[in-house]
Design brief:
By secondary structure, the chain is mostly beta strands. Helix content is 0%, strand content 51%.
Length: 444
């Protein structure tokens, strides 16, 4: 991301100033379903499979410059469910119109990429980057446009104030106001806009007929509870897989976790468990239920809105292949339904992780119970015994503590992380102690 000059002042500010703050980095996660919209036949919108990125682009077909008539000049996705009365969102705005190898957020007389929080007709606000003849005729600048109780708020930075085509926006809102931090460098607000139940949109817009807008929103990440939870759908019938265990997560340092995991041999996996991460604005260093998924090698994860504890926490993972759906339970309570495709034969892990060199993990995972397969006895049940010697990395070790070879096995995963390369974390390396066992598969 390109840094920008912070030695400037807002112009056309109607009701609020700004302060300079430095904040920590963001964590990337999928949090909520997005629905695509377009208000113009030449503008389009798509979202990624897991709603962690979105693309809004096209050439505007309608007439009339923005600000002079109806809002018919934009496209982009909106959260299917409204936001809660407080929350945090981080997202990277990328200019992706690159006809000659030099990218921008569009072309023509004017264009913009923005994130909009709409609470009601008198309380709404949009933050983004804009090229406009009046405020930034030869480049892009920061825009804040909205209303608080029907009175205008916002403004624009001087033209060409922000260079580059990739910028991180982090939003914090409550029922009484909203602020934005750009590139972890400068915070604006809070603006006194009521945000008790906002609809949140990721939009790109063209100023007039023929103008091109093109913004990709990547690494969309909401904090736990920021979006009102959707009803959890549990498929009917018997699941192909049911995997349960009791987790007791512990450790020290910046981050550690405890998970159970199901995966195949073709780069697909799902882990469910508990994670503590002091660098995460979503969990703020407290233990939270979380899941991690890999599909065709693409990694996504989600912190759930339910805090966990450093005591025994029973969890269960169930999977229905015909519905391509997994359900994560804490005790008997379903926490999340997760889209998931796996290709049996399946493999199962108990896993403990820590984040960086010097962090420790001290997990116990007990009473593992796995039921798998629907063609018995040829392709169901477990094969052999738990392997706790082949998958231990960077000082972390898994141990079978009660000698049970299959169901009923208990484990510890502990150790202190060492040997990671400079800058290495659990985001860039497999920092884990793992015990693994396979599904029985036609004699193997």
């Amino acid at each position: 991301m390109t840094k920008f000059n912070i030695k400037i002042t807002l112009i056309s500010v109607f009701s609020t100033g700004f302060t300079l703050l430095f904040t920590h980095g963001q964590v990337f996660a999928e949090q909520t379903q997005l629905s695509n919209y377009s208000w113009d036949p030449g503008l389009y919108s798509t979202t990624s499979t897991y709603n962690d990125s979105a693309h809004a682009w096209g050439r505007r077909a309608t007439t009339g410059a923005w600000g002079t008539g109806a809002v018919n000049y934009q496209s982009g996705p909106t959260t299917v469910n409204r936001g809660s009365s407080s929350g945090t969102l981080s997202v990277v705005l990328n200019g992706t119109y690159c006809p000659n190898g030099s990218c921008s957020y569009g072309a023509g007389t004017g264009y913009k990429g923005l994130v909009q929080f709409w609470n009601d007709p008198n309380n709404y606000i949009a933050f983004g980057l804009i090229h406009d003849p009046g405020v930034s005729p030869t480049g892009t600048t920061l825009m804040v446009e909205g209303a608080a109780n029907g009175r205008p708020v916002g403004g624009y930075w001087p033209g060409n104030a922000i260079t580059g085509t990739s910028h991180l926006f982090t939003f914090d809102w409550t029922a009484y106001g909203i602020s934005v931090t750009i590139d972890n460098q400068v915070t604006l607000g809070p603006y006194p806009v009521t945000e008790s139940s906002p609809s949140i949109s990721f939009l790109a817009a063209g100023r007039d007929t023929g103008d091109i807008s093109d913004t990709t929103f990547s690494d969309i990440s909401f904090s736990p509870g920021a979006i009102v939870a959707q009803p959890i759908v549990i498929p009917s019938g018997t699941p192909y897989l049911s995997y349960s265990a009791t987790l007791n997560e512990g450790g020290s340092g910046t981050g550690y976790s405890a998970y159970i995991n199901a995966h195949d041999a073709t780069n697909d996996a799902l882990s469910v468990g508990i994670q503590t991460d002091s660098t995460s604005p979503e969990s703020n260093g407290q233990p939270y239920y979380a899941w991690e998924r890999v599909q065709n090698g693409v990694f996504t994860y989600d912190y759930l809105s339910l805090a966990a504890s450093y005591t025994d926490e029973p969890v269960t993972l169930k999977w229905w292949p015909y519905d391509s759906t997994a359900v994560f339970y804490a005790g008997s309570t379903p926490l999340a339904d997760i889209s998931l495709s796996l290709n049996p034969r399946l493999f199962f892990n108990v896993e403990g992780n820590a984040r960086i060199n010097g962090d420790t993990v001290n997990d116990t995972i007990t009473n593992t119970q796995i039921s798998v397969g629907d063609t018995c006895p040829t392709y169901c049940g477990l094969n052999g015994s738990w392997n706790t010697s082949s998958f231990n990395f960077y000082g972390l070790t898994a141990n079978n503590t009660n000698g049970q070879s299959q169901n009923g096995a208990n484990f510890t995963i502990n150790g202190t992380v060492s040997g990671l390369p400079t800058g290495g974390t659990w985001d860039t390396n497999e920092v884990a102690g793992i015990g693994m066992i396979a599904q029985y598969w036609n004699g193997q």
